[in-house]
Automatic annotation (TrEMBL):
Signal peptide: none annotated. This is NADP-dependent 3-hydroxy acid dehydrogenase YdfG. Its EC number is 1.1.1.298, 1.1.1.381. NADP-dependent dehydrogenase with broad substrate specificity acting on 3-hydroxy acids. Catalyzes the NADP-dependent oxidation of L-allo-threonine to L-2-amino-3-keto-butyrate, which is spontaneously decarboxylated into aminoacetone. Also acts on D-threonine, L-serine, D-serine, D-3-hydroxyisobutyrate, L-3-hydroxyisobutyrate, D-glycerate and L-glycerate. Able to catalyze the reduction of the malonic semialdehyde to 3-hydroxypropionic acid. The keyword Oxidoreductase applies. InterPro entries: NAD(P)-bd_dom_sf, Sc_DH/Rdtase_CS, SDR_fam. Keywords: Oxidoreductase. It comes from Caballeronia sordidicola. The lineage of its organism: Bacteria, Pseudomonadati, Pseudomonadota, Betaproteobacteria, Burkholderiales. One of its GO terms (molecular function) is 3-hydroxypropionate dehydrogenase (NADP+) activity. It catalyses: 3-hydroxypropanoate + NADP(+) = 3-oxopropanoate + NADPH + H(+); L-allo-threonine + NADP(+) = aminoacetone + CO2 + NADPH. Belongs to the short-chain dehydrogenases/reductases (SDR) family. The keyword Aminoacyl-tRNA synthetase does not apply.
Length: 265
């Protein structure tokens, strides 16, 4: 690989948001490591991007819900000193009630949405901190703020991704290492085919293209945003939410029960 180019690692890169990130980062002269389960799609995308942008692309066929696949990517993150960006994009979610979702789908969703981004962040952060440079982009969801009867587990895992990102931002304050949380709303990807709710069931006006989502997310990244909500037009809504969150937490720091919980004498 040309030594001048930084390397970006993108999980869930074979289609959708991950593939769009790959194209956009290749435009920015990143060499790429594309990680996904579907090797045929990865190889096709890698060949297209290498020819289009003149960059080097490696592919790793790995299932991040399996220990072997996760360990393989962890080892890469710990060993390649040229990696300067990790995009934790891989995720899934069967949309179902808590009692109806299968044990296998429950385990898979937690493994991919919670365990994988945590372990991959832990694998890359020591090198980033040693160099005092690098960035992690964690793809969460607006469902981190809201749970529907069929999104209980998915929403919970995406809340984890948001809180993981916010906590890391606090840990890394004052360093040259950045973490961005990206919270897409409905986006036109394969997610819906796999989730059990087809994309056609959604209002077309509420669905964003992957191109627009990733372009907005990267604009937020360039602007230094800690949390990027591509579909939210009124940025003051996030500010108000975050201020209220801080105020609510502050209000909890009292060692006596609130008067409304006092037992009647």
């Amino acid at each position: 690989m040309p030594a001048a180019n930084p390397v970006a690692v993108i999980t869930g890169a074979s289609s959708g948001i991950g593939a769009e990130y790959a194209d956009r980062l290749a435009e920015r002269n990143y060499d790429l490591v594309l990680v996904a389960r579907r090797a045929d799609r990865l190889r096709k995308l890698a060949a297209t991007l290498a020819a289009k942008h003149g960059i080097e692309v490696r592919v790793i066929e790995a299932d991040l819900t399996a220990e072997a696949g996760l360990t393989q990517v962890e080892q890469l993150l710990r060993s390649d000193e040229r990696i300067s960006l990790l995009v934790n994009n891989a995720g899934n979610g069967k949309l179902s009630s808590t009692t109806d979702i299968s044990d296998a789908d429950t385990a898979s969703t937690i493994a991919l949405n919670v365990v994988a981004p945590t372990r991959l962040a832990r694998a890359i952060l020591p090198a980033f901190l040693k160099r005092d440079a690098g960035a992690i982009i964690n793809i969460a969801s607006v469902m981190a703020f809201h749970a529907l009867p069929i999104t209980t587990l998915y929403s919970a895992t995406k809340s984890f991704v948001l809180m993981l990102s916010r906590g890391l931002q606090g840990e890394l304050a004052g360093t040259g290492v950045r973490v961005q949380a990206v919270l897409p709303a409905a986006t036109a990807t394969d997610f819906y085919d796999d989730s059990g709710v087809p994309l056609s069931a959604l209002d077309p006006a509420s669905v964003m293209t992957t191109k627009n989502m990733v372009d907005a997310a990267l604009a937020g990244f360039d602007a230094g945003e800690a949390v990027t909500l591509p579909s939210v037009h009124d940025a003051a809504l996030w500010t108000a939410y975050d201020v209220a969150r801080h105020a609510l937490f502050g209000a909890t720091q009292v060692g006596t029960p609130a008067p409304r919980y006092a037992r009647a004498m």
